[in-house]
Specification:
CATH architecture: 3-Layer(aba) Sandwich
Number of strands: 10
Low-confidence stretches: none
Shape: globular
CATH class: Alpha Beta
Strand content: 25-35%
Mean pLDDT: 96
Number of domains: 1
Order of helices and strands: EEHHEHEHEEHEHHEHEE
Radius of gyration: 17 Å
Bound molecules: S-adenosylmethionine
Number of helices: 8
Length: about 240
């Protein structure tokens, strides 16, 4: 039975109260049905990691949640010597990721991405994470990432994005609404999710994201993924 805070089976979230403290397995099924091409985007990130993992490299997955992205990257490079560190501020997700990704090259740390003391790295991943970082400090995180990247290192940034004007935003939102309904969310769940994300998920436009990347120091940037209101970029230092 639906209650007004139910956003999915087994996930409830009140108005403006979205958090990632749900059962990890529920998160995985929820995000697959919520984010178009979620698995394909992770495979694409893994493919692109080929260019940024020299022997002994260090990669960070910022907002690693269940560790599924780190796992894809490790599985793509079974014989390569490198480390990947997942950072997430939700203890239950960090424990789950550590229990699921049993590879000595991986570690998962419970920390605030903004406070964490990163080592110099070859690759940073922000896979649908930056949109959950408050706009007032988003630029700080990107500046920190740019500073900690080796010259030639890469940032893969995937985000939900807003359209450049109201008409396009209306069209794109409606297409995305259809996607969610086709993915078996009820109208009540879609509304509950939209209400719960208020103040928690704040998408910028493509231009807004490009401006942030440029202000952080990146000048070599290419779009690697786009579906309606979801976009991925590769930025190289
Ligand atoms: C939508 S999920 C990211 C999805 C994930 N990258 C994947 O591949 O499935 C956003 C994650 O970012 C984490 N997060 C948000 N703000 C954070 C912060 N300031 N520090 C660390 N983790 C943060 C959340 O806890 C959540 O697990």
């Amino acid at each position: 039975m639906n209650n007004s805070d139910e956003v999915d089976d087994g996930i409830d979230s009140a108005n403006a109260a979205w958090a990632f403290d749900m059962v990890p397995e529920r998160f995985e099924s929820h995000i697959r049905r919520s984010v178009p091409y979620y698995d394909d985007g992770q495979s694409l990130v893994a493919r692109l990691s080929d260019f940024f993992l020299p022997e002994g490299a260090l990669a960070y997955d910022v907002g690693s949640t269940t560790g599924s992205l780190a796992r894809q990257i490790l599985e793509r490079h079974p014989d390569k010597r490198f480390s990947i560190v997942g950072i997430d501020r939700v203890p239950g997700m960090v424990e789950y990721a550590a229990s699921r990704v049993r590879d000595p090259r991986a570690s998962f740390i419970c920390a605030d991405a903004l406070q964490f003391d990163y080592d110099r790295s070859h690759l940073f991943l922000l896979y649908y994470t930056l949109q959950f970082i408050h706009p007032s400090v988003r630029a700080d995180l990107l500046r920190k990432i740019y500073e900690k990247l080796h010259w030639g290192g890469g940032l893969l940034l995937f985000e939900k994005v807003r359209a450049p004007d109201a008409r396009f935003q209306d069209y794109l939102s409606q297409v995305y609404l259809d996607f969610k309904l086709e993915n078996r969310f009820t109208p009540a769940q879609v509304i509950a999710k939209q209400r719960s994300l208020k103040g928690n998920l704040e998408p910028f436009s493509e231009n807004g994201n490009l401006t942030l990347l440029a202000e952080a120091g990146f000048s070599d940037i290419v779009t690697v993924f786009k579906w309606v209101c979801f976009q991925g970029w590769l930025a190289i230092k």
